[in-house]
What we know:
Barwin-like endoglucanases; mainly beta
Amino acid sequence: MRSLCKSKIHRATVTAADLDYIGSIAIDEDLLRRTDIIPGERVCVWNLNNGERIETYAIAAPAGSGQIMLNGAAARKFREKDKVIIVAFVLTDEAVQPKMIQVDDHNRFVGELGDNRQP
């Protein structure tokens, strides 16, 4: 079995960080759908501003909200307006065609990444 990238949200903008929330990362439900990430799924979050990397689980934020909110202890490593990459992996022996997307500064879908799609 290999661990392969199955989902990626590239250059999302953190909209909030709440230390007192129980944990997780809230992600706009539209972005979850486009990348095949489900609530409760383990995701890696990489902070482009400071190099921090964490693992947590996804929860759905309201569709169309543009919300990317880091909760719990992760709030100490991420701040509002930080740029992040969110990635989910799958253990498999099969080839995987990852669902990778780019978003704008308001976390709206811009396009797909990979293959012959826009960079």
